[in-house]
Amino acid sequence: MSDNASDHKPIVLEHRQVGEAVGDLPPDRRLQLPLTAEDRTVLRGRRRSHCGRSLLLQLPREGALQPGDRLFDQSRSWEVVVIAAPEPLLRVQADSVLELLQAAYHLGNRHVALELHDGDLLLLADSVLEAMLRSRGLHVSACERPFVPEGGAYGGGHSHAHSHSHAHSHETP
User: Fold this and answer.
1) 10 Å Cβ neighbour count for 95?
2) For residues 72 and 79, what is the distance between their CA atoms, to the nearest angstrom?
3) What is the average pLDDT across 100-121?
4) Confidence of residue 170 (pLDDT cuts 50, 70, 90)
5) Which of 68, 122, 139, 170 is deepest in the core (most CB within 10 A)?
6) Contacts made by residues 4-9, CB under 8 angstroms, sequence distance 24+
7) Could you say which DSSP state residue 129 is in?
């Protein structure tokens, strides 16, 4: 049998934790899992850690994974930290804030995932959207980096341990 990390039986990850680790696992029991933005929305299936270790995700459906989420096997003897993998993106800049807001509006109408910053927008590389943005006079450049888009208004964001009370009365006086 080989000592290659990819030859081991997959580590089955069933639990998610947000924030700092509670346990004190040795470094050889801590792994990193690089995932693209789209990969972070799929909570089940086979993956490979940064070092090539075989992983099997069997996570509860609690919303997309986020960079920094910690995944554990049932016995909590392995800790796997989710990291955002670099991916091909477009960086959009404008001569004015209004032009950048208009770009975000038009992309939002097309349900395009966006990462928002003070002076630019990031989106997954797409030649049709790039042409549309350039035709509006925007400055578009290609880059490769981790992509962490906004979660959206209807539950696309982080959904762990957020308890809200929405109790209210519909009675008329």
Assistant:
1) 10
2) 5
3) 96
4) very low
5) 122
6) 4/52, 5/49, 5/51, 5/52, 5/53, 5/54, 6/48, 6/52, 6/53, 6/54, 8/53, 8/54, 9/54
7) H
CA 110 to chain centroid, in Å, comes to 20
Under 8 Å between Cβ of 119 and 69: no
Structure tokens at 82: 């989710």
Distance of CA 104 to the CA centre of its chain: 19
Residue of higher predicted confidence among 109 and 18 = 109
Query: Quick check: 125 and 142 in contact, CB under 8 A?
Result: yes
Q: To 10 degrees, the CA torsion angle through 121, 123, 126, 130?
A: 0
CATH assignment of 86-146, given 3.30.70.790, 3.40.640.10, 2.60.40.790, 1.10.10.10? 3.30.70.790
Per-residue tokens: 28: 């050889």
The verdict on domain 5-84 having CATH code 3.90.950.10 is no
* Cβ proximity of 72 and 15 under 8 Å: yes
pTM, two decimal places: 0.77
Please state, as a whole number, how many other Cβ atoms lie within 10 Å of the Cβ of residue 158: 16
Count of alpha carbons within 13 Å of 136, Cβ hemisphere only? Answer: 23
